[in-house]
Write a structure and sequence with these properties.
The protein is an alpha/beta fold. The chain has a single domain (2-216), classed as Rossmann fold (3-Layer(aba) Sandwich), CATH 3.40.50. The chain contains 6 helices and 13 strands. The protein has helices at 37-52, 70-79, 94-105, 127-135, 188-194, 233-242, and strands at residues 2-6, 9-11, 19-20, 25-26, 33-35, 58-64, 83-87, 112-116, 139-149, 152-159, 162-169, 172-176, 199-202. The protein has a 9-stranded mixed beta sheet with strand order 11-10-9-12-8-1-6-7-13, sandwiched between helices. Strand 3 (19-20) and strand 4 (25-26) form a beta hairpin. It is globular and about 70 Å long.
Length: 247
């Protein structure tokens, strides 16, 4: 079984967010970039577990980005990916990204394509479903468990009020979230091996973007906290009726 894991470069969760050029660009100065956690901790690690169990033969990694994404994808190789593909494009448009991945994957005969449920910067949760549509493959989203038996995949996924179990033959696309696997840390052997693992750079296909970012807005600052003396219950009731807001 051949697995493709989609990798996204994302800002570290401790990054202080700022914008430039009249709030039209994310300020990348001093930003520490990481693998999007939903792809590193869940999609990639579950793929590695399947290979270690003898159920997968190859794990390929793919990202859409410029050369500054290579340290991130090298870390994914250090965790255990076999080889990587970087499509040399730069876009925040999920259609463009999905189309580039699908264009490459179309001729590679992957049995499973795994993505994170979303990226932690844009949270759009679009790419996995778009890739499946472009490749005419089934799609299962927000998976928390994945098991293989031959070419049959059993997936648990969260739904409102409970959990759903789906079965589907390969090939298919799955987006992964918390519960799929446990995070790993690359060891020194993996880090050294990643330096020589193949990282193929592919020119992007001539595809149009469907969306563009007009501007960014910071969320409003939280209002201050009002402290009410324990003896002033009437005042507390008044504030709850007149000023308190349910968010």
């Amino acid at each position: 079984m051949k697995i493709l894991v989609c990798i996204t470069k994302a800002p570290d969760t401790t990054t202080k967010i700022a914008f430039t050029d009249n709030d039209t660009k994310f300020n990348e100065a001093g930003v520490q970039w990481i693998i999007n956690p939903y792809e590193e901790w869940y999609a990639l690690v579950r793929a590695l577990e399947l290979k270690e169990a003898g159920l997968a033969t190859a794990i390929h990694l793919i990202t859409v980005g410029k050369s500054d994404t290579e340290p991130v994808i090298r870390k994914a190789l250090a965790l255990g990916g076999d080889e990587a593909i970087r499509i040399d494009g730069d876009s925040n448009d999920p259609y463009f990204i999905a189309a580039q991945i699908a264009e490459y994957a179309r001729s590679q005969n992957y049995d499973l394509i795994l993505t994170g449920k979303e990226s932690i910067d844009y949270n759009s949760s679009n790419v996995g479903a778009m890739v499946s549509e472009m490749l005419d493959m089934p799609f299962i989203g927000h998976a928390t468990k994945l098991d293989l038996s031959g070419n049959q995949v059993t997936v648990n996924r969260e739904i409102e009020g409970g959990e759903e179990t789906d079965t589907c033959p390969t090939p298919l696309v799955i987006s992964c979230q918390k519960g799929m696997a446990e995070a790993r840390i690359p060891n020194m052997r993996g880090i050294m091996a990643a330096r020589t693992k193949p990282l193929q750079v592919v020119a992007p296909a001539a595809l149009a973007e469907l969306t563009s970012l007009v501007s960014y807005d910071m969320p409003p600052q939280k209002a201050g906290v009002k402290m009410i003396d324990v003896e002033q219950m009437d005042e507390l009731v008044r504030l709850l009726h007149e000023e308190a807001k349910v968010i």
